[in-house]
Task: structure prediction
Amino acid sequence: MRKFSASRLALCVLCGAGLTVLPGLAFAGWVAQTSGTSNGLWSFHFPVDASTGYAVGDYGIILKTTDGGANWLSQTSGTTNYLWSVHFPLNASTGYAVGGSGSILKTTNGGAAWDTLTSGITTGLFSVHFPVDASTGYAAGSGGTIVKTTNGGAAWVSHSSGTTNILLSVHFPVDALTGYAVGGSGSILKTTNGGANWLSQTSGTTESLYSVHFPVDASTGYAVGWAGTILKSTDGGAAWDTQTSGTTNGIFSVHSPVDASTGYAVGLNGTILKTTNGGAAWDTQTSGTTNSLRSVHFPVDASTGYAVGDYGTILKTTDGGSGVEENAEVRGQRLEVRLTATPNPFTSFATLPGHEAERFSLYDISGRKVGTYRGDRVGEGLAPGVYFLRSSDTKDKPLRIVKVR
Result:
């Protein structure tokens, strides 16, 4: 099913007759940036703010921006191996990238030069993380490989993971002692002694897991994977509960910017999901692309974030992906709505659970009324496009719905 791009058509849907939309309602959401490459991008990181960041990908490509993604400049990596992960621990100067054939690169000058480090292995490394400083870090990869450095990459020591499954993501939430790694066949591993021992946890799934993130502490975290898999633990991984993602697409990356309540996940065919209630519900956002997205990251808050993926795709949002700036007013009241539409996107019509009997007036961006719909058949007969709707009985934020062919 083809997505209809928000950039081609955007209509504002408001409810209640006679509402006046004042100037200022604008559509943003996720906006494509020019990466300057058609190579796939697998990982990126903005170390300290939303301005300076790095992205890595196919054939050793490394990109850098210093202006929030307005411009991305290519750096010389010195390798043609695929680079799968990048991390700058403390600032925008010192960082690491890992990739195919055991490749580990390091820069200490913001990418002006990348030096090749000796990893001691020849298998692919898919994830790198330095928890608290630029000295102690971990990388994970093929065949259950986990390597660790305590001297800024001068030497890397292999640690036994206890598995031969591929490991695709490693994360240490608060220190260099307690960390998690996830990978093939639903593998979840945990260490509490800096990687000396890794213990297998019960994930409850056999689907490959691509990303793990514990936003605040070592207790509450998320893991995502193939076939729309989203898992959550609130007890340090003693138990992992399956959440409803609403998609069967593979999910490749998950990130919660400031707490365990608000988070984002991205994946196959341009999938972007967002939760604001700790994963009790994951809502689909409009990415505007069908290219698979491989990584998502919000550097400082839950509003400004980036996603990267296939064919050089880079997306940016400054409004949490909602796609409507909250600077419009209706009779002096700010538009603030939270509704749920099912399905979304839809081909015929959508239903608003709990609001089926309410009527919704539709307005285009000029304020012209284009129709009225009940909550049980929203969008029926409309042309494909992106819409926003608001219940006359609530003061929540407008909900973006998407009708496709």
About this structure: The chain is about 0% helix and 35% strand. The chain has a mean pLDDT of 86. The CA atoms of residues 219 and 236 lie 4 Å apart.
